[in-house]
Specification:
Blueprint: H1 2-9, E1 30-33, E2 36-39, H2 50-53, E3 57-65, E4 68-70, H3 72-85, H4 94-108, E5 113-123, E6 135-144, H5 151-156, E7 158-166, H6 183-194, E8 199-203, E9 216-221, E10 224-227, H7 236-248, E11 252-254, H8 259-263, E12 267-272, E13 276-283, E14 286-287, H9 295-306, E15 314-316
Parallel strand pairs: 7-8, 7-13, 10-11
Antiparallel strand pairs: 1-2, 1-6, 3-4, 3-5, 4-15, 5-6, 9-10, 9-12, 12-13, 13-14
């Protein structure tokens, strides 16, 4: 061992590259970073950024459909709420962030887009470990729209497995702050893959169903809807389902949802900005009811996409 180390010490050092050559590929899109609009391949952060080193960041995602943002105001509300709770500041107000998001989409040319705004703690110029010394960093990007469920899964319903992994307690991380603490969710996702499922749900600290990687879950029993209330992100699409239920005269509540209750449901669906209302027809290898997409789920799926044409819920992008 010592001889090998000594031998390496006699070798010349490798050259120091003048600039980084990135061998990876990226989706077609436009990012905003440090006052500049860039191709996605050019948008980078420092390896010393606390967002990378400590997952110290907050973000929000909104989608554009047929050239219009959907419920952008609600996403801005949540993003600025997260900034305040994490004691982060950015040099833009709500109107400024909205303008940047519009610019990213317009410059990308995408009529259907996945759009993200985020702020990291940033890095300290002196590598201080005091978060107050870090310079917070805002960025945004627009890439093609993507869904949790693909076209086939939307037609026949997702196959989901319930992992025994436990979601981070709200006593530790406020779930209302959208964050990148996803190791519990990713571990649950691998559990699901190992069992032949397509995505996962994990549990809350009481052993009830919580949420999945990037989505909330609803179940329908005897025409009534329920969704987990504890330890979950209060998703914008989750809220939209409550709004749609109120308009359609459907009863919906946020309450504890046990694993047995989910297995016994008449219908199950998940909700996310990345896909909207998406049916689930199999849980832990067993069919949900008759294994077909149920009428309440179909009704809400249709209402959700119809609402994208409602000017009260959408704001158009002005393309060049």
């Amino acid at each position: 061992m010592s001889r090998n180390v000594a031998a390496r010490g006699t070798q010349p050092l490798p050259p120091l590259s003048v600039s980084h050559i990135d061998p990876h590929s990226y989706p077609d899109g436009v990012a905003f970073l440090d006052g500049q609009y860039l191709l996605m391949s050019q948008a980078r952060i420092s390896v010393l950024d606390w967002g990378f080193l400590h997952s110290d960041a907050t973000y929000d995602t909104v989608h554009v459909w047929n050239g219009s943002f959907f419920r952008l105001d609600l996403h801005l509300d949540r993003f600025f709420g997260g900034l305040e709770k994490l004691r982060m500041t950015i040099p833009f107000d709500r109107q400024g962030v909205a303008e940047i998001l519009h610019n990213c989409v317009a410059l990308s040319g995408h009529r259907s887009a996945y759009v993200e705004m985020l702020c990291t703690r940033g890095a300290s110029p002196t590598f201080s470990r005091d978060p107050r010394q870090a310079v917070n960093r805002f960025m945004a990007f627009a890439v093609p729209f993507g869904s949790v469920a693909n076209a086939e899964q939307l037609q026949r319903g997702l196959h989901v497995a319930i992992s025994d992994k436990v979601r981070i307690s709200p006593a530790s991380i406020d779930p209302a702050i959208k964050n990148y603490h996803w190791l519990d969710l990713v571990r649950g996702l691998y559990d699901a893959y190992d069992r032949g499922a397509e995505t996962a749900l994990i549990l809350d600290f009481n052993g009830n169903v919580a949420e999945g990687p990037g989505f909330n879950v609803f179940c329908v029993k005897d025409g009534k809807l329920s969704t987990p209330a504890t330890g979950v992100l209060p998703g914008i699409t989750r809220r939209t389902v409550f709004d749609l239920c109120a308009q359609a005269g459907l009863a919906a509540t946020a309450a504890d949802v046990g694993v047995a209750a989910l297995h016994a449901a008449d219908e199950v669906f998940i909700t996310s900005t990345a896909g909207g209302v998406m049916p689930v027809t199999m849980i832990d290898g067993a069919a949900v009811a008759d294994g077909k997409i149920g009428p309440v789920t179909r009704q809400l799926m249709a209402l959700y996409w119809q609402k994208h044409d409602d000017p009260a819920w959408s704001s158009p992008v002005h393309y060049p």
